[in-house]
Amino acid sequence: MKLALPLPGGGLSIATFGEITAATNSTPAMKGPNGLEAAQSIGALIVVLHQRQLAERARVVDSFHAFNSMQTQERFRALFHGKKAK
């Protein structure tokens, strides 16, 4: 499975779960008896956060489409340009 990971300066890095596990295993906190469990937990957290991010983006797009309707445009014209709303 490929995951999109945020980079510090913005943008995304595509990585596999194995790449994430390998990277986290190179840190002292990931070694020892709990290292694999910690790496798996981090990977699971990344997956859950990514799914939530996608769901939130979809919600924002839906909200924007509802806002960007002809009715809203006509109301703005009436409010700010003095034209009658239909």
Question: Rough shape?
Answer: rod-shaped
How many helices? The count is: 3
Sheet with the most strands, sense and barrel status: 2 strands, antiparallel
Mean of residue pLDDT values:
78
Unreliable runs: none
Q: Can you count the beta strands?
A: 2
Beta-strand fraction estimate: 5-15%
Order of helices and strands: EEHHH
- CA-atom Rg in angstroms: 22 Å
Binned, the helix content reads 55-70%
Strand order of the largest sheet: 1-2
Structural class: mainly alpha
In whole angstroms, how far apart are the ends? 51 Å
Which properties best describe this structure?
86 residues, rod-shaped, two-stranded antiparallel sheet, 3 helices, mainly alpha
Write the layout of secondary structure elements.
Layout: E1 2-6, E2 12-16, H1 17-25, H2 35-67, H3 70-81
Antiparallel strand pairs: 1-2
Write a brief structural summary.
This protein has 86 residues and is mainly α. It has helices at residues 17-25, 35-67, 70-81; strands at 2-6, 12-16. The chain has 3 helices and 2 strands; from the N terminus they run E-E-H-H-H.
Structure report:
It is a single chain. By secondary structure, this protein is mainly alpha-helical. The protein has a domain at 2-60. Helix content is 63%, strand content 12%. The chain has three helices and two strands. It has helices spanning 17-25, 35-67, 70-81, and strands spanning 2-6, 12-16. The chain has a two-stranded antiparallel sheet with strand order 1-2. Helix 1 (17-25) crosses helix 2 (35-67).
